[in-house]
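Researcher: Please predict.
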Amino acid sequence: MNPTALEYFVRIAQSGSISRTAIEAGIEQSTMTRHIARLEAELKVRLFHRSGRGVVLTDAGALLLTRARKVAEALDETRKLAVTLADEGPSELVIAAQPTIAQRSFAAVARALRACFPDTRLHMVETLGHQIINSLADGKIDVALLYVPNTQAGTVDMDVLLHEPLYLILPPDYPPAATTTPVTRMFDQPLILPGTPHGVRGLVESLALSCNRRLHVEVECDGSNAITKNLVRGGVGCAVLPLATVAEEVALGQVQASRLVEPEVIRQIAIATARNRPPVIGQWDILQTLRQAILGQTAQGNWPGATEAAGPAGAGLEAGPPDTQDA
């Protein structure tokens, strides 16, 4: 038995008019009539006598009304409770992000969530992309901020927020870098790349394949971005990273950055939630709060290189699966 139909039945009985109840509920009269018709068919009794002046309860309808009121009241109380819980938020919220994203967003995200959900305990985690996907599916994380992989898990919903181009990062003692570097020129450089075939490594390998070029991997580094930057700063080789990862070092002249073009190499940054698990209390409000906090960082210039994702990434090559550094 459809509880919504029971609620409509109670409201019609109180108003004495199907059309008036439909207007108050904001639905078409025909939809309201179908609800009542189905309820009558299911119960195998007529609930209303209809006339030109409205409707009145039959004896069966009057008997049902005494029980249906309790159902309608219970549903109304449940809705009120749901609204209250949503306003308060969950008791705990676990948010995970990849390193560069965490670096650029966590402070703003924490401030925004504390303002909206002061009673919620925040647990913020910096981790790798493939670990985030697994933890979402396992229910260990509630919401994630990550680089969108080429092959998305079927259990994850992605809401793309930002587009972020990748840069060739060069040592400070190299000849002055141009603003942009064609992808084919990247293969002339000794590269510092992750050793595992995720994210940046897989992306650079796919670019080499499409350009019919071989990689010159000087060092494989599966450590943090900080180690990769130190290797570049020390003149060991060049890296491929987003500008946000090296903005401070570029400003200090410790490394150089040149945006990769022809094609432009773009990664997408998204909010991710699990499809295979029930949403946390107040999830819609939480996601909107996260979205506004992150977009606010971009609008204020606090996320170098990133732009709001108003649509598809365009003709550039979008990055592949998350890597071991910013995965």
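Model: The radius of gyration is 28 Å.
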